């Protein structure tokens, strides 16, 4: 079948002066360059960003000057590790002092982190960042064997179905042009999964993009029910790390490779496996990713540390040495045998999502609670949260609040949304605490299920 969507999208991008396809061609052109070439390209982009931040952003003018990173209009990257790390608390405290004074000329828009560390953060991005982010998404799909406009299914969270909101014309148009069908992972009852199988077989996706826990539970349903399922070229697993056990099971059921993807709302795609599965390729043109130990020293190969990211495309509000809240293992192999020269991350280990189960056997991914409590109903109200399933019909939500008065007006909406997926008999208790500590390994558990997974 002829892929008419790609030339249509290219033409639309040209008319609107959008650059995602230009950036995609650049990424394809340089993908097999050496590690040294990528390091040089990243240094050029990093220097340009730092000079811009120094000249246009109040917070960074002070910080970069104190770190001796900018002197005489030049960037001294040998001092980059002197820059203090950026945290969510600093972002909240500094507010617009982290915005570039020329942001209005860059067509900026607001965004919010997914709250995967329990601390949703508000920030702004701009059109150039969006185009680079789209180009990176197109590129990782190409790495996996799917071109722009070819059939894709997303087993993804859709709050619109829960809240009964109508899909906008633009979202329908985007789904049509990008040839993407969304299956709602927030509503994975057995009846819905039966319908998902029918949709899947009708669409015949070349690539499936899914929450790891959701595609795993869907695979369990497919195997248990014995239904026939169309075999895609690849499944890209996001939001959680893919363990060997989970990967093997997904690949066994769908008879295709399952790849690990790592990204965030703050920084876009930061890593994705290719079909060799020797580690996650980073995107050094778009982000500088550091894996550092507790002393903020670079981790040795095989060592686990915290991830710090510097966004290289978002000049409206660059994040420089931002502690994103995840942990990773530094790669032992400098380069993948596929020949691409982008540096590798061995694995992401800092994301931990536990799915909840209803008495009827329905599976609710932890991403549901992250999205609703951390984003949909959180407008500078909740600093941290943790949802604990004590029994099929018993949930406790621990909360560190920024505004208790505003939260009081949201309680009923949160309860209503949770009961729509967990059942109307679900008892929901709120526990207000001063802090929610991570585990000894550094993981932040924002969902904990005490219900047996058998």
Describe the structure.
This protein is α/β, with parallel strands linked by helices and 454 residues long. It has 2 domains: 1-145 and 233-350, Rossmann fold (3-Layer(aba) Sandwich); 356-449, GMP Synthetase, Chain A, domain 3. The chain has helices at residues 5-15, 20-30, 35-56, 58-66, 88-94, 127-144, 159-163, 169-177, 190-203, 212-225, 244-254, 366-376, 404-408, 411-422; strands spanning 70-71, 74-75, 108-112, 122-126, 152-156, 180-184, 207-211, 234-238, 258-264, 268-273, 280-282, 287-292, 304-311, 322-330, 344-348, 356-357, 363-364, 382-391, 394-401, 427-432, 447-449. It has an 11-stranded mixed beta sheet, sandwiched between helices. It has a 4-stranded mixed beta sheet with strand order 20-19-18-21, covered by helices on one side. α3 packs across α4. The radius of gyration is 22 Å and the shape is globular. 43% of the residues are buried. The mean pLDDT is 91.
């Amino acid at each position: 079948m002829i892929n008419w969507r790609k030339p249509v999208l290219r033409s639309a991008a040209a008319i609107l002066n959008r650059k995602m396809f230009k950036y995609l061609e650049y990424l394809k052109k340089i993908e097999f360059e050496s590690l040294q070439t990528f390091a040089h390209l990243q240094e050029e982009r990093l220097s340009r960003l730092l000079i811009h931040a120094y000249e246009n952003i109040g917070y960074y003018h002070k910080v970069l000057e104190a770190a001796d990173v900018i002197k005489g209009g030049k960037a001294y990257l040998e001092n980059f590790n002197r820059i203090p790390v950026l945290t969510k608390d600093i972002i909240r405290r500094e507010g617009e002092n982290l915005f570039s004074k020329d942001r209005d000329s860059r067509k900026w828009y607001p965004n919010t982190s997914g709250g995967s560390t329990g601390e949703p953060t508000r920030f702004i991005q701009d059109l150039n960042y969006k185009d680079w982010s789209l180009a990176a998404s197109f590129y990782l799909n190409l790495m996996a064997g799917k071109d722009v406009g070819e059939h894709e299914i997303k087993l993804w969270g859709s709050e619109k179905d829960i809240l009964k909101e109508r899909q906008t014309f633009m979202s329908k148009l985007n789904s049509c042009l990008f040839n993407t069908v969304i299956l709602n992972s927030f509503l994975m009852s057995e009846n819905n999964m039966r319908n998902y199988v029918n949709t899947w077989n009708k669409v015949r996706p070349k690539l499936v993009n899914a929450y790891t826990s959701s595609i795993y539970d869907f695979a369990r349903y497919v195997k248990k029910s014995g239904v026939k399922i169309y075999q895609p070229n690849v499944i890209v697993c996001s939001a959680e790390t893919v363990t060997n056990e989970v990967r093997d099971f997904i690949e066994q059921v769908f008879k295709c490779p399952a790849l690990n993807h790592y990204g965030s709302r703050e920084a876009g795609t930061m890593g994705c496996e290719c079909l060799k599965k020797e580690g996650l390729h980073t995107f050094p043109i778009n982000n500088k990713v550091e894996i550092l130990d507790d002393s903020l020293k670079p981790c040795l190969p095989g060592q686990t540390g915290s991830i710090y990211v510097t966004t290289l495309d978002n000049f409206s509000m660059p994040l420089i040495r931002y502690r994103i809240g995840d942990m990773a293992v530094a790669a032992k192999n400098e380069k993948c045998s596929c020949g691409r020269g982008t540096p590798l991350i061995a694995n992401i280990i800092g994301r931990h999502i536990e799915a909840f189960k209803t008495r009827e056997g329905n599976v609710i991914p932890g991403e549901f609670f992250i999205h609703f409590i951390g984003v949909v109903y959180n407008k500078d109200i909740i600093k941290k949260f943790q949802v604990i399933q004590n029994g099929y019909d018993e949930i406790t939500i621990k909360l560190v609040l920024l505004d208790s008065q505003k939260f009081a007006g949201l309680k009923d909406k949160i309860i209503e949304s949770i009961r729509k997926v967990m059942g109307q008999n679900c008892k929901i208790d709120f526990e207000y605490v001063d802090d929610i500590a991570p585990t000894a390994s550094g993981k932040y558990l924002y969902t904990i299920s005490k219900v047996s997974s058998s």
